[in-house]
Design a protein that fits this description.
Elements lengths: L3 E6 L10 H13 L4 E6 L25 H7 L1 H8 L3 E4 L12 E5 L3 H4 L6 H7 L3 H6 L4 E3 L2 H10 L7 E3 L17 H9 L5 E5 L8 H14 L5 E5 L7 H9 L6 E5 L6 H7 L2 E4 L8 H8 L4 E4 L2 H7 L3 E4 L4 H13 L1 H15 L4 H17 L8
Parallel strand pairs: 1-2, 1-3, 3-4, 4-5, 5-6, 7-8, 7-10, 8-9, 10-11, 11-12
Length: 381
């Protein structure tokens, strides 16, 4: 079997190591470890990773274009050809409109299409004008969950037969056995003035539904002041002004802590140290933080968004996104019922054990090889 030369759109690695950046790094690393797969990363600027650096065998193509969409549509195709790539993995979904080799877009979610009000204008401009043509001419399509695949097939039925569902993995760093002595005390001292905490991990953005979480915790504190504080970890994001004003006005404002962006190397300890993890998102394509929390031995309360239910199954307590009392009640159950807490932690660990990045990389490699060896793909020729 001859080697397949894979180019990856690695723009996500130019920003904070969350979401699509985690996916890109893990899949790139996993693909590079497989025999018969040669990987090159491409981005508008030099890629620099600190935690979990990519193997030195990577040869990142780089130039100095500031805007990723301009680079994608004017330069990437030429760079791929110059490097002799056989297939492109479009890790940020959108592919160049003019491209002379097969490509496989990764669809993380379709919320820029279904809920544009949740997103920044630059995300809409980079997604909406290009998504239909990207899907139409793709050799194969990867969806990161069955929920995303179903939405994709419903809105673009012609692509249904080309969809492969390949779920994310979870890094082995997310494990309760990896905890060091005194870890939880150190995290609390650094983040919440030494107090136990309920954790949310994710960017401040409308679909994360953090107002509901804040209201649920206020309800908990009103009923019992001894309840844990709330720690909101994640970058400032966008369209968060109303949320920040809401927090500032809260009678419990001193119990709501903001950690900002947490570097990748610090996330496992943060998750292990939480009393509970809460993820009330209105919609997700997968929900990687939920999986990482379960793998860390931290009980999770989630919304009943389809992808989150798919990932967690019975290993998390699920609540409707707008049900403040429901979230407060679910969190209280974890805090008060030791048997339930132990059961859900065990279920979470068992569920998370079925998701591994090397397996995701192997399945991705098969899809990419199939695309490269297909009858010329669907790119312009």
């Amino acid at each position: 079997m001859h080697a397949v030369k894979v180019g990856i759109d690695a723009r996500a690695l130019l920003s904070e190591h969350t979401g699509i950046a985690v996916y890109t790094a893990q899949i790139a690393r996993g693909l590079s470890a497989l025999p018969g797969v040669d990987v090159t990363l491409f981005a508008p600027r030099e890629i620099s990773l600190s935690a979990g650096s990519l193997p030195s065998s990577f040869r990142p193509g780089s130039n100095r274009r500031r805007f990723g969409t301009v680079w994608l549509q004017t330069r990437l195709s030429r760079d791929l050809a110059a490097e002799g790539c056989d297939v492109l993995l479009s890790a940020v979904t959108i592919a160049p409109a003019r491209i002379d080799l097969p490509y496989v877009p990764v669809v993380h979610d379709l919320t820029p299409l279904t809920h544009p009000e949740w997103h920044r204008r630059k995300t809409i401009v980079a997604f909406l004008p290009w998504i239909e043509k990207t899907l139409e001419r793709s050799a194969r399509v990867i969806a990161v969950s069955q929920a995303t695949a179903a939405e994709l097939a419903r809105r673009f039925p012609d692509v249904a037969a080309r969809i492969a569902v390949i779920e994310h993995g979870v890094d082995s760093r997310f494990s309760p056995v990896a905890a060091e002595p005194g870890e939880a005390d150190s995290v609390r001292a650094a983040r919440t003035a030494g107090r136990p905490f309920i954790l949310h991990l994710g960017t401040f953005e409308p679909r994360k539904n953090l107002g509901t979480l804040v209201a649920a915790c206020e309800r908990l504190w009103s009923e019992d002041p001894r309840r844990p504080d709330l720690l909101l970890a994640g970058s400032g994001g966008w369209k968060s002004e109303a949320l920040l004003a809401r927090i500032a006005r809260s009678p419990f404002a001193e119990r709501i802590h903001r950690a900002g962006y947490v570097p990748a190397e610090d996330v496992p300890a943060l998750l292990r140290s939480a009393e509970a993890f809460c993820y009330p998102s209105r919609e997700e394509g997968f929900g990687l933080p939920v999986l990482e929390a379960m793998a860390s031995g931290t009980p999770a309360v989630i919304s009943n968004a389809a992808a989150l239910l798919e990932v967690a199954r019975d290993a998390a307590l699920a609540v409707a996104p707008d049900d403040v009392a429901g979230f407060a009640g679910a969190l209280a159950r974890f805090l008060d019922d030791r048997d339930l807490r132990r059961t859900q932690i065990e279920r979470g660990l068992a569920r998370a054990a079925g998701f591994r990045w090397p397996a995701a990389a192997e399945r991705t490699a098969r899809v990419l090889r199939d695309a490269a060896e297909s009858a010329g793909g669907r790119g312009e020729r």
